[in-house]
Amino acid sequence: MSIDFDNALRAFEHSTDFTVGLEEEFAVLDPGTLALAPRFEELRDAAQDDALLSESIAGELISSEIEIRSMRGGDLAEALVRQREHRKRLFALAQAQGIALGATGTHPFSDYRDQRIIDTEHYHRVEDGLKYVAWRNNTFSLHVHVGVRGADRAVQVCDRLRPVLPLLLAISANSPYVDGRDSGLHTARTQTFTKSFPRCGVPDAFGSWAGFRDYLDFLLRTNSIVEYTQVWWSIRPHLSYGTVEVRICDAQSTAAESDALASLIVACVAQAARDVEEGVPFADPAPRLIEENMWRAIRRGLDGPLIDLERAVEFPGQAALERLLSWTAPMRGELGIDVVLPELNGAQRQRRMIDAGAGIEEVYAATVRATRETYAEEAIV
Asked: Is the pTM of this model over 0.70?
């Protein structure tokens, strides 16, 4: 296999700025025990009677996970309207099939060794290539695609967002549990996935489409990959869609948080694109410095300090949102983007319950209840 670079270049040259596509991953659960349940295929088959829903759901590695997609919206507002309708249909279908859905970055207690890889050529290739690394990856995320016109510009937007990624991760952290225990982290998902998969995490800065293409050529020539989807970075130009895809965030337990986080990501991509256009100076930090903030986001999320990389001083993690809102204010105003997130994120709410003595089943049940009550909206009777 190979990568059609000419088609990829055309995709970016014909892309429309700030179209939006949303992808949310949910855990498929037994409604009684809230353990992972391998019933994706059952949901997929049952969705065939609903043309809209059947087009918007997809499998994601294991049979106890399902992804719901907005498809391309002309702007953020349209994508959110689409996604809300798709969610309602999915949750109604799951209820009819006797299935619950969860939305945290990891499942707290189900054993990864009991999960089954779904039967697709792509995921069999992932399993064959990665073995334990693939088996171990029972994680759930929010991905946001934002249209960016021009291949050079898309690569440069990714470059500029590299130091922003740890802030988005800290804001989205929602996975303190893994393997049946409190990990002591705010996002165990990131430690499990980003620190394990190859070609993952925060990429290098490439500067241009030519530099980016040279790297992909290297991967192909050395038989490191056979398709572009084997590049799992936390941000990447998507060669098929002509978008910048942001993949750093944990799945969110409430619909309002998912919508607000997606809105913030769109604002960040749009502001980075505008800064590229206007030649705003950019101090490109070394990867080792970005990694310091990545670790802080993983370990303590918004409860610990992050680092202002330009000034080499700490700042409270809770100020991460304020900093991003300040930076993106011009494009948020231009695009009419409002971002309202709760005072505590998912990891903080779970940690407050843990500190108060709640057990793992009680904490997870609370998140599943919040997911059902907010994502399903009026679909649940």
From this structure: yes
